[in-house]
Amino acid sequence: MLGDLTVHLPASLCQRLDRSSMAHSLEARVPFLSHRFVEWALTMPKDLKLRGSTGKYILRRAVEPWLPHGALSKRKIGFQLPFAEWFVGGFNDFAREAWRSSGVAELGFLDPDGVEQLFDEHRNGAADHGRVLYAIAMFSCWWEQQRATSAPARPRRQTAAVTS
Q1: At the N or C end, where does the chain have fewer CB atoms within 10 A?
Q2: Are 53 and 107 within one domain?
Q3: What residues form DSSP beta bridges with 54?
Q4: What is the pTM for the complete model shown?
Q5: DSSP string over 48-83
Q6: Could you list the residue range(s) of the whole structural domain that residue 89 is in?
Q7: 153 in a domain, yes or no?
Q8: Dihedral Cα 8, 13, 19, 23, nearest 10 deg
Q9: Are residues 101 and 124 in the same domain?
Q10: 133-152 burial: b if 16+ Cβ within 10 Å, else e
Q11: pLDDT tens digits for range 83-132
Q12: Could you give the CA distance from residue 129 to residue 125 in angstroms, rounded to a whole number?
């Protein structure tokens, strides 16, 4: 716990929260990191924090009356983006066009025929390539942006000096 409190929270979790909230002009608060709350939690007996394999035991007991029955026994799951669904519909067309027009196919990192096959197999339901197709689409968009911003500037047209 001390390692999490002194290393992981400030160096990773709090910094990520701060950066992501500031990037969207939001002010985020972390109520469980109030110094009074943290000091109190550090004095609690271990069996109130961890009971068997159940972490945050006392917190779970405190919020139990307000949660639906069985909510606390469910496993924690992360937020999943619906890549599979995205690449069945119109996003498939967008991503495929980004792949084709960005110039990524000519770089030689990926087999163009293989990528086209991934798009086809996914759209036809033969396989779920959603995560890979998303990575290809984002790389293609990034590459196109890099090409556009690093294109050499056009030379200025010279104007003839007028002499009197």
Answers
A1: C
A2: no
A3: 51
A4: 0.52
A5: HHEETTEESHHHHHHHGGGSPTTGGGSPP------H
A6: 83-146
A7: no
A8: 170
A9: yes
A10: bbebbebbbebbeeeeeeee
A11: 888 888 888 899 999 999 999 989 889 999 999 999 999 988 899 999 99
A12: 10
**32, 67: one domain:** no
Residue range 18-40: average pLDDT?
A: 88
C-alpha triplet 16, 20, 22: angle, nearest 5°:
120
Backbone angles phi, psi at 88, to 5 degrees: -90, -35
Residues 136, 46: Cα–Cα separation, whole Å: 47
Whole-angstrom distance, CA of residue 6 vs CA of residue 131: 35
Q: In angstroms, rounded to a whole number, what is the distance separating the alpha carbons of residues 40 and 20? A: 29
Residue 55, beta-bridge partner list: 50
Token pair in block for residue 68: 């639906």
Which ranges of 6-162 does DSSP label H, i.e. alpha helix?
A: 14-23, 35-43, 46-49, 57-63, 83-86, 90-102, 112-124, 130-149
Rounded alpha-carbon distances, angstroms, from residue 98 to 14, 56, 94, 109, 130: 35, 46, 6, 16, 15
Q: What domain count does the chain have?
A: 3
Residue type, position 43, single letter:
T
